[in-house]
Design goal:
Layout: H1 2-11, E1 24-33, E2 36-50, E3 57-64, E4 67-74, E5 80-87, H2 115-134
Antiparallel strand pairs: 1-2, 1-5, 2-3, 3-4
């Protein structure tokens, strides 16, 4: 059993960011067409996460030409070039399957405010205020 875990640990990818349900992500996928290889970006909302370790998958949903498209992507697969978290969403569910029934503005999620970014913004504003008061 320890041998299986050791092999699995060596295959896990450490270069990917932490993705949570409700995040709006851009997933760059390696697509092989014959002898050529290209990168295709799939952009959408993470509506579900499943599994652990090598079998961990995320379900990404987007609306394309008025039709909902979902892809189930294995997180640690070599076909995934990188994952970029565009914005974090505020959610209170583990699975967001209710978004399948919603269209347009009703399908949006609130954005989670990043505390560190706000602190940096406040420091920047304070620095600007001190400069203007000195001048």
């Amino acid at each position: 059993m320890d041998l299986v875990r050791a092999v699995e640990q060596s295959q896990l990818r450490q270069d990917l960011p932490k993705v949570e349900v409700g995040d709006y992500v851009k997933v760059a996928l390696r697509i092989t067409e014959g002898s050529r290889e290209r990168i295709q970006v799939f952009e959408g909302t993470v509506i579900a996460m499943k599994g652990t370790g090598l079998s961990e998958t995320i379900t990404v949903r987007r609306i394309s030409y008025g039709v909902g498209v979902e892809r189930i992507l294995p997180v640690h697969a070599p076909t995934i070039d990188n994952i970029e978290v565009v914005r974090k969403g505020v959610v209170r569910r583990a699975k967001l399957y209710y978004l399948r029934d919603r269209v347009g503005k009703k399908a949006r999620l609130r954005e989670k405010l990043n505390v560190k970014t706000n602190e940096a913004h406040v420091e920047k504003v304070e620095a600007v205020e001190t400069e203007t008061s000195e001048a």
